[in-house]
Amino acid sequence: MKLIDLSHVIADGMPVYPGDTETRLLQVRFLDTDKYNNHRLDINMHAGTHIDSPMHLTGCKQYISELPLEPFIGEGCVLDAREQPLITYKAEYETMVKEGGIVLLYTGFDKYYGTQEYYEKHPCLDMELCQFFIAKKLKMVGMDLPSPDRYPFAVHQALFANNIYLLENLTNLGQLLTVDRFEVIAFPLKLKADSSITRAVARII
Length: 205
Description:
Elements: E1 2-5, E2 24-29, H1 31-34, E3 38-42, E4 50-52, E5 73-80, E6 86-87, H2 93-96, E7 102-106, H3 116-120, E8 124-125, H4 127-135, E9 140-143, H5 154-161, E10 165-168, E11 182-185, E12 195-197, E13 201-204
Parallel strand pairs: 5-7, 6-8, 7-9, 9-10
Antiparallel strand pairs: 1-13, 2-3, 4-10, 4-12, 5-11, 11-13
């Protein structure tokens, strides 16, 4: 079995979406003086690799901890969306994207992770492609971007209305371009929150 890590490292002072609070990860107990090691993490749920659920941008009252687990694991498909400021529908996606699966959009934009360009100039998802994903009844749409769209977040809203979750700030998606079949595994923490940080991986089938 081979696993490919699709997640960014969680670290003290890591990049966060503009306007969000800084992540603090501190060691608070030390083996030499306290007889054990311990760390404390203060992080918002949209830092690093994370899952957005409908509560994030809709009137949904359901915490991410209350969602079924099945949508967070499934057969994956990676779409090569490099050099596309607007990621659009292509006819070949009809056979590439399987109904009820998880789609990952590889843009290569993770190379700018943590920079102003990453947050302000990232590609966005075309609404036609969004509607295609809805028709395919996907579980999740993942991407190496901080968001599939910008304010007023119409793509977020459309996907959430159809119980399709978003997996944002991925990395290493280029390693999947030559893989025939893989499974995406990205479970949220059991949090009473709108969204959750996650350790996303691809399991080669």
